[in-house]
Amino acid sequence: MKAMILAAGKGERLRPLTLHTPKPLVRAAGVPLIEYHVRALAQAGFAELVVNHAWLGQQIEDYLADGARFGVRIRYSAEGEPLETGGGIQRALPLLGEQPFVVVNGDIWTDFDFTALRQPLSGLAHLVLVDNPAHHPQGDFCLLDGRVSEGGAASKLTYSGMAVLHPALFRECTAGAFKLAPLLRQAMASGQVTGEHYRGRWVDVGTHERLAEVEHLLGACC
């Protein structure tokens, strides 16, 4: 199974850090955010990774190179302009192949064990959901009996930015910029999305305050 790290965002809320550094290379405890993912995926047995990039993307390629020093092989999907989450994945499909693949947002930090995602996929997507953070109290989706839906009796949880996706999810898509969420909602409506609730540590590193939170967590555990 291959894995894709989404690394094309500009990180505007992290300026001035991201004026000259792509967001995935912003450091927490001295280590670029994307490196935590690369090492965790390698430890979980993922040998082939795809990384998309746009803003200052060459810096990401220069830093990670071919992945050999991390024990993986990295291929890149360069975007002239960011294609949103869905468009970026769709563009990278030729590198990902015809089998389900893991996708992880490059601007989160977590201690999630990606080994848990190396399972057969039932449907078109499997989402990792987390407790709603303070900045997103309304949540995104409901999880009931292992199935994810847009609404229902269960309280909503937040999509973590980690998932297993089947290439068929993008079958009707055309090239260009588009979001992933509408595709997921369409698949949910037909019962094609499973999920799990991760209760461990997870931070969406979108602001200076949340970057400081990651620094604190890493300082406490290491």
From TrEMBL:
A Pfam cross-reference name: NTP_transferase
The entry's keywords: Nucleotidyltransferase, Transferase
Taxonomic superkingdom: Bacteria
Coiled coil residues, start to end: none
Any one GO molecular function term: nucleotidyltransferase activity
Location of the Nucleotidyl transferase domain: 2-117
SUPFAM superfamilies associated with the record: Nucleotide-diphospho-sugar transferases
PANTHER family: N-ACETYLMURAMATE ALPHA-1-PHOSPHATE URIDYLYLTRANSFERASE, NUCLEOTIDYL TRANSFERASE
Name this polypeptide is given: Mannose-1-phosphate guanylyltransferase
Organism of origin: Stutzerimonas degradans
